[in-house]
Amino acid sequence: MVHNAAWRRSFLCVLTLYLGFASPPCKARIYTNHWAVRIAGGPGVADRIAEKYGYRNMGQIGDLKDHYHFFHSRTIKRSTLSSRGHHSFISMEPKVEWIEQQVVKRRIKRDYKPVPPLSQTSPAYSNVAQNNIFYNDAKWSSMWYIHCNDDVHNCQSDMNIMGAWKRGYTGKDVVVTILDDGIERNHPDLFQNYDPQASYDVNSNDLDPMPRYDATNENKHGTRCAGEVAAAANNSHCIVGIAYNARIGGVRMLDGDVTDMVEAKSLNLNPQHIDIYSASWGPDDDGKTVDGPASLARQAFENGIRM
């Protein structure tokens, strides 16, 4: 009955798209050919079960013990119908404690909103000299949100960043990773602080977080976020990061289907090394969409807290 209902929803979705308009049935789930599986007994047992049922074991899901990423190449990559057949039989294995086909989650990057430039005679600009702090970075004089402090009236920022710097808080000995669409590890403002141990490509399953370049240049968000955090100071390039002495890494995870497993892998990368995971993205922020972390992402958060 459930399977038939799902089939009807998918048929209605295809029909409405064909006719050129959208309707509520098109909000059907999109299933992928990736599964999250909890298997007791270690990686060897997981490998044997994966091979028996035609999966490829892609390894443990981040730092979540006994949780594995299974991939099935002969299953449709994206479908409005969940897979049955041997995918159901694997759950009967004594060592398989839980299995879930991964579903695509809609995630939106949070970007800046342009604001009118400050006047060159505004308190924020005139305060650059008063602070006796000067860097040769090209955009330093335009970074009004840093030049603001307790002594400046009518300032648009109350972060008091220079006050923190004067107290020695510059990010030294702190490791930050940006969960996003990748970061340019060789960027002239980032390479000095780049940390490979805080970096990974979840989308391509390799160690290099470099963004995928295309004509639209849509994968620039992660690099921008990394620059705001840890762009090197006094190197004649671009800007100064808020924590310019921090180590910075990146996780490429938004340039593809985002699933519960993708979020969990990203949030569980090298947790004994990384201090801060920064994620400037989330569900639609439209006032009517409510979404949060699913089971694996929740476990990743709990694992980070407990461990």
From TrEMBL:
SUPFAM superfamilies: Protease propeptides/inhibitors, Subtilisin-like. Gene3D superfamilies: Peptidase S8, pro-domain (3.30.70.850), Peptidase S8/S53 domain (3.40.50.200). InterPro entries: Kexin/furin, Peptidase_S8/S53_dom, Peptidase_S8/S53_dom_sf, Peptidase_S8_Asp-AS, Peptidase_S8_His-AS, Peptidase_S8_subtilisin-rel, S8_pro-domain, S8_pro-domain_sf. The keyword Protease applies. PROSITE patterns: SUBTILASE (PS51892), SUBTILASE_ASP (PS00136), SUBTILASE_HIS (PS00137). Residues 1-28 form the signal peptide. Keywords: Hydrolase, Protease, Serine protease, Signal. Residues 171-301 form the Peptidase S8/S53 domain. Residues 34-110 form the Peptidase S8 pro-domain domain. Pfam families: Peptidase_S8, S8_pro-domain. Belongs to the peptidase S8 family. This is Proprotein convertase subtilisin/kexin type 5. It comes from Ataeniobius toweri.
